Structure formats: structure tokens, C-alpha cells
């Protein structure tokens, strides 16, 4: 006799994850990364730096396409629609991106399963891979764009100048907000149970970063480094200052406003 499945209640497998379950999953995922070799972490991070370059390519395409038809403010808002593409490729492809992993990798330290020195070493390899990959895709982008006729070097300069238009204080606070959102992205992805929902979460969070103009160190590295290569108006010191400020801001946003607060909220709830 066949049973009727229409009246089945929601099972634990498809019910929403609790705060403690998300935290345990995040710590477990982070520990898996800690167990990887340095070479594996660097190569995965290098891949992420390359893949996220597709966001930069699309930003240049949109900027060049609408340059003569819309004012500059509208162009930067339109760019927010294509900004998430690189993030989707990176996150769903499981490459290691510094801003997504910042809060995640801090959790084992807060839980006393890893040491601070191990965290900083891991961050070093992740950043080295992300930045190196970004530089490589920068070289490809500033060559292929003009060759295909989809944008020219003046567009690259325009994008880089836009990223650098604020002073370092503005960039720093903006980067904190971007790091905060990227930390939340990692947290939300853990509670998402389907590819479609994960894509939607990635798109919404990163589109907010794009439309608000918040500074993301890894995408920003590609944008400003590309501008440095094609323009005499952008100095190497500006590039280094921007990159250092954005990295520190992103790290603070992810560690303080996501990892620390969410971990403490769990701890104060009386759980181990």
C-alpha cells in the first residue's frame, strides 16, 4: 500500500539551520582550509584573483558602452548589475577569496582551535594569491579590451580614477563596510541550501557593494593596478596606499562586525 507524502512535516534536512549549526559549519569549513598545504592555498587564491577579474572586464565594457549616452553617476550604478559576476564564479567555484574568508578563517582562532600566527600566515598566502592573480588578469584585460574593441585604455583609467577619488579615510571606512558585507555573505551562504539561493545571495550582497561604491580590496587591486599600467596620472604610491588601506578596512569589517560579534552572540547564549 502506497503512503501519502503530501502531509509530511518538514524534516531536519530541509529546515532552516540554527545559529549554532551555522557557526559549527563555518568553523568546520575554516578548519578544512587550515589543513590545506601552502601551495594549495596559494593556487586556489591565485585562481580567485584571476576569476574575479571578470567583474572588472564587465565594468569596463559597461562603462565604455554607456559613456556617451548617460552621465557618469548613472554609469557607476549600471556597473553594479555586472559587478557580482566575478564573485559568483569565485564563490561557487570554491576558490579562496580574502574578503569572503576573512571572518570565516578567524572563527577557529576565537574557538581556540587555531593560533593567531596560523591565521596571519594563512591570510598572507591568500592575499599573495589574490593580488598576483589580479595583476595577471589586469595585464590580460588591458590588452584584450582594445584588441576586441570593447573598451580602450581611457576607460581603464576612468574606472581606476573613480576608485581613487576619495581620500584614504573615506576608502578605509568604505572598505570596512565592504568587508562587513563580505563576511555576512560567507555566513549567509552556509545557511543557503540550493545553488539558486546561493547565487541570489551572492548577487544581492555584492551588488550592494557595487551600487554603494564600497571599496573591495581584491577587485580594487585589479582596477587600480590596471589604471597604473595605462596612465601616468596614477602613481605607484597611490596604488600601494589604496591597496593597504582597503585590505585593512576589509579585514576589520569581516573580523569585528561578523566573526567576533556573531561568535560572541553565540557564546553569550550559553553554548560552547
Which key features would you list for this structure?
Glycerol uptake facilitator protein, disordered N terminus, globular, mainly alpha, 75% helix, 272 residues
Instruction: Tell me the series of helices and strands, N- to C-terminal.
Output: HHHHHHHHHHHH
CATH topology: Glycerol uptake facilitator protein
Strand content: under 5%
Instruction: Give the N-terminus to C-terminus distance in angstroms.
Output: 47 Å
- Biggest sheet layout: none
Give the mean pLDDT: 90
Low-confidence stretches: 1-11
Q: What is the CATH first-level class name?
A: Mainly Alpha
Give the count of structural domains: 1
Q: What's the helical proportion of residues?
A: over 70%
State the fourth-level CATH superfamily: Glycerol uptake facilitator protein
By helix and strand content, what is the structural category?
mainly alpha
Instruction: Give the number of helices.
Output: 12
CATH architecture: Up-down Bundle
Global outline = globular
How big is the Rg?
20 Å
Amino acid at each position: 500500500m502506497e503512503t501519502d507524502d503530501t502531509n509530511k512535516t518538514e524534516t531536519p534536512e530541509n529546515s532552516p539551520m540554527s545559529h549554532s549549526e551555522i557557526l559549527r559549519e563555518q568553523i568546520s569549513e575554516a578548519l578544512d582550509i587550515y589543513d590545506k598545504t601552502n601551495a594549495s592555498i596559494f593556487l586556489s587564491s591565485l585562481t580567485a584573483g584571476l576569476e574575479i577579474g571578470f567583474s572588472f572586464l564587465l565594468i569596463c565594457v559597461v562603462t565604455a558602452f554607456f559613456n556617451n549616452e548617460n552621465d557618469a553617476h548613472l554609469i557607476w550604478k549600471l556597473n553594479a548589475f555586472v559587478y557580482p559576476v566575478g564573485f559568483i564564479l569565485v564563490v561557487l567555484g570554491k576558490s579562496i577569496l580574502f574578503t569572503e574568508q576573512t571572518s570565516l578563517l578567524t572563527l577557529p582562532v576565537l574557538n581556540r582551535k587555531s593560533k593567531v600566527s596560523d591565521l596571519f600566515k594563512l591570510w598572507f598566502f591568500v592575499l599573495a594569491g589574490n593580488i598576483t592573480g589580479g595583476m595577471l588578469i589586469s595585464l590580460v584585460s588591458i590588452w584584450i579590451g582594445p584588441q576586441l574593441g570593447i573598451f580602450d585604455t581611457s576607460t581603464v583609467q576612468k574606472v581606476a580614477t573613480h576608485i581613487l577619488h576619495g581620500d584614504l579615510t573615506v576608502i578605509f571606512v568604505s572598505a570596512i563596510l565592504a568587508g562587513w558585507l563580505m563576511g555576512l555573505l560567507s555566513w549567509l551562504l552556509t545557511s543557503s541550501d540550493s545553488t539558486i539561493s546561493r547565487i541570489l545571495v551572492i548577487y544581492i550582497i555584492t551588488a550592494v557593494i557595487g551600487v554603494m561604491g564600497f571599496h573591495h580590496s581584491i577587485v580594487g587591486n585589479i582596477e587600480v593596478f590596471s589604471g597604473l599600467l595605462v596612465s601616468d596620472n596614477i602613481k605607484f604610491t597611490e596604488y600601494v596606499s589604496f591597496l593597504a588601506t582597503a585590505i585593512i578596512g576589509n579585514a576589520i569589517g569581516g573580523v569585528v562586525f561578523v566573526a567576533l560579534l556573531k561568535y560572541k552572540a553565540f557564546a553569550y547564549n550559553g553554548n560552547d
